[in-house]
Design brief:
two-stranded antiparallel sheet, mainly alpha, Quinone Oxidoreductase, Chain A, domain 1, binds zinc ion, 229 residues, elongated, 2 domains, 3-stranded antiparallel β-sheet
């Protein structure tokens, strides 16, 4: 970390674009944007793995890392520099303050989702329910939040509830193969072979490359095991 006071604070902020870089055509001057304060170098091992807040080039501006408000000037400065990939356009009707809170709530949401997934991975679906339900309530249109909650309910043999959440996931992402296979499995558990078959066939009808060979083989096995096949 840089010495206290070296840079101007502020890592949760929104504002107007007043200048753009030479190659930037995603945004225009005057656009209202909210920012993610952190930009990893995108070249170290951690960044490549998506763990950019643990960038191994932390504080090295020459290598592209920025943590605005910590290693560079942040939101309380009159102007702050942000990489184009850290900007999100604010819809009309959403204030700067609201947009900032939405961006900030991403951290607890990430925590809730990951706590739920961690419980699932350690074979504790009962404990996964509470964080996943909260994540889903915060973000009811997130296909992953709905998928994970469906998965937890499936693991607890709550098939109807599992189907409900998996269907929410599929409403948003219709050909999501993982959600289709799990919902098919839940239908199968309820003895609804036709519905199960329909979901499995929806996976198999996807083009080569859209799903893995492993998934295709697994689904073929499930289809073959359906009663009456
Ligand atoms: Zn990095």
């Amino acid at each position: 970390m840089p010495p206290y006071g070296e840079f101007i604070f502020g890592h949760e902020y929104a504002g107007d674009i007043v200048a753009v870089g030479r190659t930037v055509d995603e945004f225009q001057i005057g656009d209202r944007v909210v920012v993610e304060a952190h930009m990893g170098c995108r070249r170290c091992e951690n960044c490549i793995r998506g763990l950019y807040t643990a960038c191994l080039n932390y504080g090295n501006r020459k290598r592209g890392h920025r943590a605005n408000g910590f290693t560079t000037n942040g939101g309380l400065a009159e102007y702050a520099v942000n990489h184009v990939n850290t900007l999100y356009r604010i819809p009309d009707g959403v204030s700067y303050e609201e947009a900032t809170v939405v961006m900030t709530s991403g951290s607890p949401l990430f925590g809730l989702e990951n706590a739920g997934v961690a419980y699932m991975r350690t074979n504790r679906p009962q404990d996964a329910l509470a964080p996943l339900e909260r994540a889903q309530r915060i973000n009811p249109n997130d296909p992953i939040a709905n998928y994970n909650l469906g998965l937890a309910n499936l693991a607890l043999d709550k098939y109807e509830t599992a189907i409900y959440y998996l269907s929410q996931s599929l409403r948003i992402r219709p050909n999501y193969p993982d959600a289709l296979v799990q919902r098919g499995f839940a239908y199968q558990k309820l003895g609804k072979a036709d519905s199960a078959s329909a979901d499995y066939e929806r996976i198999l009808s996807q083009s080569e490359g859209a799903i893995s060979d492993k998934m295709r083989a697994e689904v073929r096995r499930l289809v073959a095991a359906l009663p009456g096949r």
